[in-house]
Design brief:
Pfam families: LytTR, Response_reg. This protein is an alpha/beta fold. The chain folds into 2 domains: 135 residues, Rossmann fold; 91 residues, LytTr DNA-binding domain (OB fold (Dihydrolipoamide Acetyltransferase, E2P), Beta Barrel). It is 32% helix and 31% strand. The strands form 5 sheets. Strands 2-1-3-6-7 form a 5-stranded parallel sheet, sandwiched between helices. It is elongated. The N and C termini lie far apart (48 Å). The relative contact order is 0.09.
Length: 251
């Protein structure tokens, strides 16, 4: 999306009060966003998207008897960006994060709304269909941990296997993924975000800069904090404060 043009948006939510509140907040705090219309359910939402062809959809997750994800899957060609809204569903939030998509937790916070819109304006690519399919699969499985992760970069999206991550290396607001089967990938998210997202029984924060997959630890060299030698030959320093956590994880 380009920041200089108006973003044409629709709101799809089965709660009238939620739609009205979100519209008011958008009008107050997001001057580049124009809300064209609203819909109160999946069927009306599908028809609205086909008719209006919006740039952005604010989409409620929980819309009984279905979900916002059912709506997405029912549309053959979807070119709009999506910001999900949800009240409480643990599985939905985790799946959305694993898919590198944006969501707003109800009641919607002004700062988070503005940040989500700004993020979309800076992105140079649309959401691939494969990302949405991956999200739906994760939701259907109802698993706490997904086996796929979508990496959001400045160029777009990359889908990787979680099991292929050897270690993650943080550098301020960016994270580099070092992988078994491909070149390293740079993500525009912090290492802390991925530490919170990935399974903490497998991925251990051993240093301010490093989050390692213990399945790829080749050896541990003793020292003040110690040093890990990973399967790709990389030596990673272990912080003294993280030493015992690592030893416990390695068993």
């Amino acid at each position: 999306m380009k920041t200089e043009r108006t973003i044409r948006a629709v709101i799809i939510d089965d709660e009238k009060g939620a739609r009205e509140l979100l519209r008011s907040m958008i009008e107050l705090y997001c001057p580049t966003v124009q809300v064209l219309a609203e819909a109160d359910g999946i069927e009306n939402g599908r028809n609205l998207i086909k008719e209006v062809q919006p740039d952005l959809i604010f989409l409620d997750v929980e819309m009984p008897p279905g979900t916002g994800f059912d709506l997405i899957r029912s549309i053959d060609s979807l070119s709009a960006e999506i910001i999900f809204t949800t009240a409480h569903d643990h599985y939905a939030i985790h799946a959305i994060k694993m898919s590198a998509l944006d969501y707003l937790l109800k009641p919607v916070n002004r700062q988070e709304l503005v940040a989500s819109v700004a993020k979309l304006q800076q992105r140079n690519s649309q959401i691939p269909r494969e990302v949405l399919e991956l999200l739906k699969m994760q939701l259907d499985s109802k698993k706490d941990q997904a086996d796929r992760l979508v990496i959001a970069s400045l160029q777009g999206f990359e889908i990787i296997k979680v099991s292929d991550i050897i270690y993650c290396e943080g550098d301020r607001n960016y994270t580099t993924f070092h992988l078994t089967e491909r070149d390293a990938l740079l993500s525009s998210k912090t290492l802390k975000e991925y530490e919170m997202l990935l399974d903490d029984s497998v991925f251990i924060r051993v240093h301010q800069k490093y989050l390692v997959n213990i399945n790829y630890v080749k050896r541990y060299l003793k020292g003040r904090g110690g040093t890990l030698v990973m399967s790709n030959g990389k030596s990673i320093e272990v912080s003294q404060s993280k030493k015992q956590i690592l030893i416990d994880a390695l068993g």
